[in-house]
C-alpha cells in the first residue's frame, strides 16, 4: 500500500520534521531516526541511534578481523569506518 512512489516517501521524510522519522536502516526497525547516514555515497538513509551503533560495531569488528570492509554495492574496500560511512544528526 505504501510503496507506490519512493519519491513521495522521501519528500515526506524531509518535509515532515515534526513527525517521527522512522529508522530506514538495512535492519527492519520502528525506532525514530535521528541520524543521517551516508555510506560513501552508495547508501544514504535516516537511521536510529541503536542501528548507527550496531553498524559502527559491526564495521569496526570486520575491519579488526579482516583489515577492511568490502562494500556489497560497489565492491570497494575500506580500511577505516570513517572512510566507509559517516553519520550526522538529522
Ligand atoms: Zn533502527
Ligand atoms: Zn560502496
Task: Provide structural commentary.
- With 90 residues, this protein is α+β, with helices and mostly antiparallel strands.
- It has one domain.
- Helices cover 36% and strands 20% of the residues.
- It contains three helices and five strands, in the order αββαββαβ.
- It has helices at 6-15, 49-66, 81-84, and strands at 35-39, 43-47, 69-70, 77-78, 86-89.
- The strands form two sheets. Strands 2-1-5 form a three-stranded antiparallel sheet. Strands 3-4 form a two-stranded antiparallel sheet.
- Strand 1 and strand 2 form a beta hairpin.
- It starts with 5 loop residues before the first helix and ends with a strand.
- Residues 10-18 have low confidence and may be disordered.
- Residues 23, 25, 27, 29, 31, 47-48, 50-51 line the site of one zinc ion.
Global morphology: elongated
The secondary-structure class comes to: alpha+beta
**Relative helix content:** 25-40%
Tell me the domain tally.
Answer: 1
Most strands sheet: 3 strands, antiparallel
Ligands bound to this protein structure: zinc ion
Residue windows where pLDDT falls under 50 for at least 5 positions: 10-18
Mean pLDDT: 81
Q: What is the count of helical runs?
A: 3
Secondary-structure element string:
HEEHEEHE
Q: What is the gyration radius calculated from CA atoms?
A: 14 Å
Give the structure's gist in a few sentences.
The chain has 90 residues and is of the alpha+beta class. 36% of the residues lie in helices and 20% in strands.
Amino acid at each position: 500500500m505504501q510503496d507506490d512512489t519512493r519519491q513521495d516517501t522521501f519528500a515526506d521524510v524531509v518535509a515532515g520534521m515534526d513527525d517521527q522519522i522512522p529508522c530506514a536502516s538495512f535492519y527492519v526497525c520502528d525506532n525514530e531516526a535521528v541520524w543521517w547516514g551516508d555510506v560513501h555515497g552508495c547508501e544514504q538513509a535516516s537511521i536510529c541511534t541503536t542501528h548507527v551503533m550496531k553498524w559502527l560495531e559491526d564495521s569496526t569488528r570486520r575491519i579488526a578481523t579482516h583489515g577492511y570492509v568490502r562494500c556489497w554495492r560497489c565492491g570497494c574496500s575500506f580500511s577505516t569506518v570513517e572512510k566507509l560511512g559517516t553519520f550526522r544528526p538529522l
